[in-house]
Amino acid sequence: MALKPVTTPDVEAATIELTLDGEKVTAKAGVSLYDVISSTGKIIPAMCYHYTFDPFGSCGMCLVMQEGKRAPVRSCTAKAAAGMVIRTEGEDLFLARKKGVTKHLSVHPLDCPVCDADGHCELQDNAFLHGVTHIDNAKQKNIPEDTRSLVLDFNMNRCIACGECINICKDVQRIDALQFIKKGGFTQVVAKGDQALDCEFCGDCLAVCPVGAITNKYSKYVYKPWQLRKTTTTCNYCGDGCQMILETKDTQVVRVTSSLSWKNKWGDRLDTANGHGGLCVRGRFGFQFITNEARLTHPLVRTPAGLTPSPWMDALDLAAGRLAYVKATYGSQAIAGLITARCTNEDLYVFQKLMRVVIGTNHVDSSARYGHINFVQAMKHALGLGRMMNSSQDLTKAKAILVVGANITETNPVASVRVKAAIGTYKAQVIVVDSLQTPIAKLASHPMMVKPGSEGMFITGMVKSVIQQDLVDEDATTQYPQAFAALKNAMATVSLADIAEQTGIPVAHIQETACIFAESPRSIILCGEGVLRQADGYRQVLNLIDLAWVTGKLDKTGCGINTFIEEANEQGAVDMGVAPEFLPGPVSYDDPSIRQKFQSEWKTQLPCTAPGADLMNILKRCHSGEIKALYLVGENPVSTLPASCEVTAALSKLDVLICQDPFLTETGKLAHVVFPACTFAEKDGTVTNQEGKVQYVRPAFDPLGESARDWHIMMGIANGLGASWDYETTHDIQKEIRKLLPGYYNLGRPQKVEARPKEYLQGPYLTEVADHYAVSNRSLRRPFRLKLIPLLYHSGKLSTQDSGLLAIAPNAKSLSLHPDDLKKLGVQSGDHVRLTTDQGSLEIGTQSDVFVLPGSYVVPEHFNDPPVKDLMGMEIDPHTHVPYFKLTSVTVEPV
Ligand code: SF4
Ligand code: SF4
Ligand code: SF4
Ligand code: FES
User: Fold this and answer.
1) Ligand 3: does its nearest atom lie under 6 Å from the Cβ of 202?
2) Which of 17, 62, 225, 703 has its CB 3.0 to 4.6 Å from that of 707, i.e. a possible disulfide?
3) What pLDDT, on the 0 to 100 scale, is given for residue 518?
4) What is the DSSP string of 661-700?
5) Cβ neighbours of residue 105 closer than 8 Å, sequence gap 6 or more
6) Which of 543, 526, 542 is nearest to 460 (CA)?
7) Closest residue to atom 1 of ligand 4, CA basis
8) What is the pLDDT of residue 2?
9) First to last CA, the chain
10) Cβ-defined contacts of 75-78 (< 8 Å, 24+)
11) Parts of the chain with a pLDDT under 70
């Protein structure tokens, strides 16, 4: 956040003493006097103040008397100083504040009965508190409501010109989409340029508005705050794991709020790094999918007439019966399961247990295989860690942040606010390596726009530069002389000039970024889908680990290697052992002593004859006929994977395909049995965010229709297969997990992690390192690069079921390209072009975008219309089997 804390990790402000209402209090010199007052537990009125940004001082409510001054002072803008004598209460102050409220009310419409903020309004509260019962000379503003924005309406008759909306947008979100203008004799808030507001729609301005001047279009005039039931839960879209409040009426989500509001203005300005309690557009406005009419409300079973509604018991009997038949006829190894990482930890745990213990197969995987597993496997292999290393506090207080292949403001918008705070508050140097000019690149001190797919080359360039410029940390490298010699050896053939050529970044810039990263006292690495979901993702994480190691950033406080996760519970999926290589922990499935521990806990023999199949191997084995039965929970491979994977053909060979999902997906349409799962809003349990925090998911209402919680359905199948599971609640499952993983349910507090590179650097590293830097020879047969990218307003395919998000970002059915490329092609923005790759060809509209690098073409990954994903080739990581299909070479022609 952009407020300027007086105490930073580098400068400790002096402790001073002052007197408040006759009591001596201590404070840090220079903090807002308002903060000092609130830290003693006193609450004085304040309508324009919020701890997330610098005091604005417009409302005139936070008045106090300071000894030596004749008039009251505004405590929010006054800075605490030694020896100050302050009085916060008294008749004079009461009357001065009452005058302030009266002034605001004299131009306020008093339309409380129809205002969405009625009962939740700071002006109303203060009018009540100060007994303002009568207004002389009231004046109406008569400003027409501004309803031009897609999501937010602006009723400037109600605005008290506190500036909170403008300040939070500018200083916290660093978007700066709003401004004051003087119109019709009144100060009004409008979108910059007095246009329809077109921003990231995070809703922070809506949240902090102390009155009803900004309203949520999706829920306007349909509720009074006290009529809504409030359920605090965890957002189900991305790995940031934001805490949200689902406000519901019966089984309808009316609006989503969070702890960010004018009510939480009494935050702690001394430590701004704990998060601001906000949400992003997906969390705040993407709630309509929960009650989408297309939700499945009954089980479906395949009959000659197609998929037909069925009673639960019949559908469960059918699914369990078919699985039992396949197991008896072909053996357990003919059955596999895939589950989405949007499920809770309890769902995930039960799923892998069903597959391993009841069915007897280790062919089990989750959507973490699409990328996160690259990070986990590399971190485990090199450092003995199964997740990212730093907290959001570390991120905010970093001095240098290397963001590689991570469009963080789009994939993980709320966590990206920590990076924005590092830039704004602590003046961190931020190096962004990406092939798009992302929003974070625009804020960064060192944006490095590399050619698509060359992020890994840039990392190699940084490692080379560190060695070449002698920026290595002696302590870190002398501990492992052989490893350092092996690294230098591997680097001997690496040429910075070649890297500059391949990345498009001059050598001097690569060297400068290496220098910044190496010399900063607190450097943090952040990698995302541009590394983990691109070819060589696993190797690139290992190379990032090298960069951190040789610069001494592996074990110093505030340094480390991190990733931001796209799906809500990918970390939980790995922790719960939903991968053939891991048991819950995550610990190695291959280790006999570990298997033994689980065998005795689960009282079973684990399948260990052959390595279990992961996502791509499962599909391969479906194709070859080795796998006869597949159980999919929330996974939709037909829609996710490119046509070259022949998923439909593979699934059509199955004897039994069971799909469990809130919606009838493209894959579900091929199934023999479809179970209606409920959404996160109807579930209880926990999810684990990217930091390793385990957080509650709480039900806002019962599962809709006959839909059911995922683990309930799994238990039905397990018992249909002869098990006698008797979990009654998620607590029963948690009890079992806690026994296996003591400390995992340390809710809200991730366990501290410490890198343990010794075994790696003294062992496998010595022989592996040369391979890590070997240049892959990928044939790029066509002149341009086509990339599938995530969008801020969407999350996988789930958000495409959400009318709220679709209204903001419908499928534009177009390819974004640089205006220079449009010119070269001789077409106008909006015209159609033909895309041709080795996999096929299709026509698509165009859209000019200056933030796309010339020569590259991007399409959102969320929509399959037109089916651009089917133009993508497929490469499978040799170590982690992560499928890479987000980037390909392409020919583009006008049509
Ligand atoms: S919704 Fe967010 S980005 Fe848009 S104006 Fe409000 S604070 Fe700014
Ligand atoms: S719209 Fe709300 S937050 Fe913005 S200036 Fe007006 S009252 Fe303050
Ligand atoms: S940042 Fe992620 S977890 Fe937070 S509200 Fe947005 S989608 Fe949800
Ligand atoms: S809160 Fe201090 S002037 Fe508004």
Assistant:
1) no
2) 703
3) 98
4) ESS--TTGGG-SEEEEB--GGG--EEEE-TTS-EEEE--S
5) 123, 127, 132, 135, 138
6) 543
7) 46
8) 37
9) 48
10) 75/32, 75/33, 75/34, 75/37, 75/44, 75/46, 76/32, 76/33, 76/34, 76/46, 76/48, 76/49, 77/32, 78/32, 78/33, 78/34
11) 1-8, 265-274, 609, 747-749, 776-780
Please work out whether the CB of residue 178 comes within 6 Å of at least one atom of ligand 1. yes
Closest CA to 147 of 219, 215, 221, 225: 215
- State CA 801 to chain mean position distance: 19
Contact 797, 827 (CB under 8 A): no
Q: How many CB atoms lie within 10 A of CB 560?
A: 27
Token representation of residue 73: 């002072």
Evaluate: CB of 177 within 6 angstroms of ligand 1.
Answer: yes
Peptide bond into 45 cis (omega under 30): no
Q: Look at ligand 3, atom 6, and give the residue with the nearest C-alpha.
A: 280
Q: Which residue has the tokens 């205002």?
A: 115
Task: State if pTM tops 0.85.
Answer: yes
DSSP state letter for 462: H
Quick check: helix, strand or coil at residue 651? helix
Main-chain dihedrals φ then ψ at residue 382, nearest 5 degrees: -90, -35
Q: Give the nearest ligand 2 atom to 48 CA.
A: 8
pLDDT of residue 779: 60
Q: How far apart are CA 832 and CA 828, in angstroms?
A: 9
b/e burial code for range 563-584 (CB count within 10 A of at least 16 → b) = bbbbbbbbbbbbbbbbbbbbbb
The SS3 call for residue 286 is coil
Taking the centre of ligand 2 as the mean of its atom positions, its distance from the CA of residue 586, in whole angstroms, is: 48
Distance, in Å, from the CA atom of 37 to the CA atom of 20, rounded to the nearest integer, reads 7
Q: Please give the sequence-ordered ranges of beta strands (E in DSSP) within 722-839, or none if there are none.
A: 784-789, 814-817, 832-837
Place of tokens 């406080």: 557
- Whole-number pLDDT of residue 239: 97
